Amino acid sequence: LMVMSKSKNFHNWYGLLSTYTNKLTDNIDFYGGVDLRYYKGVHTNEIVDLYGGKYYVDSSSRSGVSATNNSAAAAGSSFVNQKLKVGDVVYRDYDGFVASEGVFGQAEYNKNGLSSFISLSASNTSQWRYDRFYYDEANAKSKMVNNIGYSIKGGANYNLNDHHNAFANVGIISRAPYFSGGAFLQSTTSNTVNPNGINEKAFTAEVGYGYKSKYL
Fold first, then answer.
1. pLDDT tens sequence across 116-158
2. 69 HSE (CA, 13 A, CB side)
3. What is the rounded CA–CA span in Å between residue 141 and residue 112?
4. What is the pLDDT of residues 39-73, one digit of tens each?
5. Rounded CA gap, 96 and 119, in Å?
6. Which phi and psi (to 5°) does residue 27 adopt?
7. Cα distance between residue 163 and residue 96, in whole Å
8. Residue 180: partners with Cβ closer than 8 Å, 6 or more residues away
Protein backbone atom coordinates (compact mmCIF):
# COMPACT_ATOMS: atom_id res chain seq x y z
CA LEU A 1 0.00 0.00 0.00
CA MET A 2 2.94 2.33 0.55
CA VAL A 3 6.48 2.67 -0.78
CA MET A 4 9.18 5.29 -0.83
CA SER A 5 10.58 6.35 -4.17
CA LYS A 6 13.63 8.46 -4.90
CA SER A 7 13.12 11.26 -7.41
CA LYS A 8 16.28 11.50 -9.50
CA ASN A 9 17.03 14.54 -11.63
CA PHE A 10 20.31 14.84 -13.53
CA HIS A 11 20.90 18.19 -15.27
CA ASN A 12 23.66 18.47 -17.86
CA TRP A 13 24.41 21.87 -19.44
CA TYR A 14 26.88 22.53 -22.26
CA GLY A 15 27.54 25.88 -23.89
CA LEU A 16 29.79 28.03 -26.00
CA LEU A 17 29.91 31.81 -25.72
CA SER A 18 32.07 33.81 -28.14
CA THR A 19 32.31 37.61 -28.10
CA TYR A 20 33.74 40.25 -30.41
CA THR A 21 34.51 43.88 -29.61
CA ASN A 22 35.66 46.68 -31.89
CA LYS A 23 35.93 50.46 -31.81
CA LEU A 24 34.27 51.42 -35.08
CA THR A 25 35.03 55.14 -34.76
CA ASP A 26 36.31 57.47 -32.06
CA ASN A 27 32.77 57.68 -30.72
CA ILE A 28 31.20 54.28 -31.54
CA ASP A 29 31.99 50.97 -29.81
CA PHE A 30 30.57 47.64 -30.95
CA TYR A 31 30.08 44.38 -29.02
CA GLY A 32 28.70 41.16 -30.48
CA GLY A 33 28.89 37.40 -30.45
CA VAL A 34 27.24 34.00 -30.56
CA ASP A 35 25.64 31.99 -27.75
CA LEU A 36 25.19 28.21 -28.18
CA ARG A 37 23.58 26.04 -25.50
CA TYR A 38 22.56 22.40 -25.07
CA TYR A 39 20.74 20.85 -22.12
CA LYS A 40 19.74 17.31 -21.21
CA GLY A 41 17.73 16.54 -18.09
CA VAL A 42 17.21 12.92 -16.98
CA HIS A 43 14.18 12.43 -14.70
CA THR A 44 13.24 9.14 -13.03
CA ASN A 45 11.46 7.86 -9.91
CA GLU A 46 12.94 4.70 -8.42
CA ILE A 47 11.51 2.56 -5.61
CA VAL A 48 13.94 2.48 -2.65
CA ASP A 49 11.83 1.06 0.21
CA LEU A 50 8.81 -1.30 0.27
CA TYR A 51 8.22 -0.75 4.03
CA GLY A 52 8.06 -4.49 4.65
CA GLY A 53 5.85 -5.27 1.67
CA LYS A 54 6.71 -7.92 -0.92
CA TYR A 55 5.94 -5.75 -3.95
CA TYR A 56 4.18 -2.59 -5.11
CA VAL A 57 1.57 -2.06 -7.84
CA ASP A 58 1.79 1.31 -9.60
CA SER A 59 -1.71 1.10 -11.07
CA SER A 60 -2.37 4.85 -10.79
CA SER A 61 0.42 5.62 -13.27
CA ARG A 62 0.33 2.50 -15.43
CA SER A 63 -3.40 2.76 -16.09
CA GLY A 64 -2.61 6.00 -17.94
CA VAL A 65 -0.22 4.28 -20.37
CA SER A 66 -1.80 3.96 -23.81
CA ALA A 67 -1.37 0.73 -25.78
CA THR A 68 -1.14 2.92 -28.89
CA ASN A 69 2.05 4.54 -27.57
CA ASN A 70 3.45 1.59 -25.61
CA SER A 71 2.95 -1.96 -26.86
CA ALA A 72 3.58 -3.37 -23.36
CA ALA A 73 0.33 -1.76 -22.19
CA ALA A 74 -1.57 -4.04 -24.58
CA ALA A 75 -1.17 -6.78 -21.96
CA GLY A 76 -3.85 -5.00 -19.97
CA SER A 77 -4.20 -5.92 -16.29
CA SER A 78 -0.93 -7.89 -16.20
CA PHE A 79 0.90 -4.70 -17.18
CA VAL A 80 -1.07 -2.39 -14.89
CA ASN A 81 -0.76 -4.78 -11.91
CA GLN A 82 2.87 -5.80 -12.42
CA LYS A 83 4.58 -6.54 -9.10
CA LEU A 84 7.36 -3.99 -8.70
CA LYS A 85 10.36 -4.31 -6.39
CA VAL A 86 13.13 -2.05 -5.07
CA GLY A 87 15.00 -0.54 -8.02
CA ASP A 88 11.98 -0.50 -10.35
CA VAL A 89 10.79 2.81 -11.82
CA VAL A 90 7.38 4.31 -11.00
CA TYR A 91 5.44 7.32 -12.28
CA ARG A 92 8.02 8.74 -14.71
CA ASP A 93 11.18 7.99 -16.66
CA TYR A 94 12.06 10.53 -19.35
CA ASP A 95 14.75 12.84 -20.72
CA GLY A 96 14.12 16.49 -21.56
CA PHE A 97 16.22 18.28 -24.18
CA VAL A 98 16.71 21.97 -24.96
CA ALA A 99 19.09 23.36 -27.60
CA SER A 100 19.46 27.00 -28.57
CA GLU A 101 21.53 29.02 -31.03
CA GLY A 102 21.73 32.76 -30.64
CA VAL A 103 23.50 35.89 -31.86
CA PHE A 104 23.68 39.30 -30.20
CA GLY A 105 25.16 42.73 -30.79
CA GLN A 106 25.26 46.20 -29.25
CA ALA A 107 26.56 49.55 -30.46
CA GLU A 108 27.31 52.48 -28.13
CA TYR A 109 27.79 56.12 -29.10
CA ASN A 110 29.47 58.63 -26.79
CA LYS A 111 30.30 62.24 -27.59
CA ASN A 112 30.38 65.28 -25.35
CA GLY A 113 27.35 65.02 -23.05
CA LEU A 114 25.44 62.49 -25.15
CA SER A 115 25.61 58.71 -24.76
CA SER A 116 23.29 56.28 -26.54
CA PHE A 117 23.04 52.60 -27.41
CA ILE A 118 21.08 50.03 -29.35
CA SER A 119 21.19 46.27 -28.72
CA LEU A 120 19.75 43.39 -30.76
CA SER A 121 19.59 39.63 -30.23
CA ALA A 122 17.94 36.65 -31.90
CA SER A 123 17.84 32.94 -31.07
CA ASN A 124 16.21 29.65 -32.01
CA THR A 125 15.18 27.30 -29.18
CA SER A 126 14.48 23.62 -29.91
CA GLN A 127 12.81 21.40 -27.29
CA TRP A 128 11.99 17.70 -27.31
CA ARG A 129 11.63 14.77 -24.90
CA TYR A 130 12.36 11.03 -24.83
CA ASP A 131 10.00 8.96 -22.66
CA ARG A 132 10.76 5.36 -21.54
CA PHE A 133 7.73 4.93 -19.23
CA TYR A 134 4.62 5.94 -21.15
CA TYR A 135 6.04 5.06 -24.58
CA ASP A 136 7.87 2.15 -26.17
CA GLU A 137 11.11 2.62 -28.10
CA ALA A 138 9.34 3.23 -31.41
CA ASN A 139 7.33 6.12 -29.96
CA ALA A 140 9.66 7.37 -27.22
CA LYS A 141 10.92 10.50 -29.00
CA SER A 142 8.53 13.43 -29.27
CA LYS A 143 8.24 16.00 -32.01
CA MET A 144 10.75 18.83 -31.85
CA VAL A 145 9.29 22.21 -30.91
CA ASN A 146 11.11 25.25 -32.35
CA ASN A 147 10.60 28.86 -31.33
CA ILE A 148 12.36 32.02 -32.49
CA GLY A 149 13.08 34.60 -29.81
CA TYR A 150 14.49 38.10 -30.01
CA SER A 151 15.17 41.29 -28.09
CA ILE A 152 15.55 44.93 -29.13
CA LYS A 153 16.49 47.76 -26.82
CA GLY A 154 17.70 51.30 -27.32
CA GLY A 155 18.25 54.35 -25.20
CA ALA A 156 20.06 57.62 -24.69
CA ASN A 157 21.29 59.86 -21.89
CA TYR A 158 22.25 63.53 -22.12
CA ASN A 159 24.21 65.35 -19.46
CA LEU A 160 22.90 68.91 -19.44
CA ASN A 161 25.72 69.94 -17.10
CA ASP A 162 27.58 68.54 -14.11
CA HIS A 163 24.36 68.34 -12.06
CA HIS A 164 21.50 67.54 -14.45
CA ASN A 165 20.84 64.74 -16.94
CA ALA A 166 17.88 63.37 -18.88
CA PHE A 167 17.46 59.85 -20.23
CA ALA A 168 15.06 57.56 -22.10
CA ASN A 169 15.01 53.83 -22.91
CA VAL A 170 12.66 51.51 -24.76
CA GLY A 171 12.82 47.78 -25.35
CA ILE A 172 10.98 44.57 -26.16
CA ILE A 173 11.83 40.91 -25.51
CA SER A 174 10.23 37.76 -26.90
CA ARG A 175 11.44 34.48 -25.39
CA ALA A 176 10.62 30.86 -26.17
CA PRO A 177 7.98 29.21 -23.95
CA TYR A 178 9.10 27.04 -21.05
CA PHE A 179 9.48 23.28 -21.51
CA SER A 180 6.69 22.37 -19.08
CA GLY A 181 3.29 23.89 -19.80
CA GLY A 182 4.77 25.81 -22.71
CA ALA A 183 6.28 23.51 -25.33
CA PHE A 184 4.55 20.44 -23.84
CA LEU A 185 1.17 20.18 -22.12
CA GLN A 186 2.27 17.59 -19.52
CA SER A 187 6.04 17.38 -19.80
CA THR A 188 6.38 14.79 -16.99
CA THR A 189 4.06 12.18 -18.49
CA SER A 190 3.36 12.97 -22.15
CA ASN A 191 4.95 13.77 -25.51
CA THR A 192 1.88 15.79 -26.52
CA VAL A 193 2.96 19.16 -27.91
CA ASN A 194 1.12 22.29 -26.80
CA PRO A 195 -0.76 23.40 -29.95
CA ASN A 196 -1.20 26.92 -28.55
CA GLY A 197 2.30 27.47 -27.22
CA ILE A 198 3.48 31.05 -27.80
CA ASN A 199 6.48 33.15 -26.83
CA GLU A 200 6.46 35.19 -23.65
CA LYS A 201 6.72 38.90 -24.45
CA ALA A 202 7.52 41.98 -22.40
CA PHE A 203 7.71 45.65 -23.38
CA THR A 204 9.41 48.35 -21.35
CA ALA A 205 9.84 52.09 -21.71
CA GLU A 206 11.17 54.76 -19.38
CA VAL A 207 11.98 58.43 -19.42
CA GLY A 208 13.62 60.23 -16.57
CA TYR A 209 15.61 63.04 -15.11
CA GLY A 210 18.58 62.91 -12.78
CA TYR A 211 20.18 65.37 -10.40
CA LYS A 212 23.39 65.02 -8.45
CA SER A 213 25.60 67.24 -6.31
CA LYS A 214 28.06 66.77 -3.48
CA TYR A 215 25.12 67.02 -1.09
CA LEU A 216 22.54 64.88 -2.99
1. 999 999 999 999 999 999 999 999 999 999 999 999 999 999 9
2. 18
3. 58
4. 999 999 999 999 999 999 999 999 999 999 999 99
5. 31
6. -115, -5
7. 54
8. 187, 188
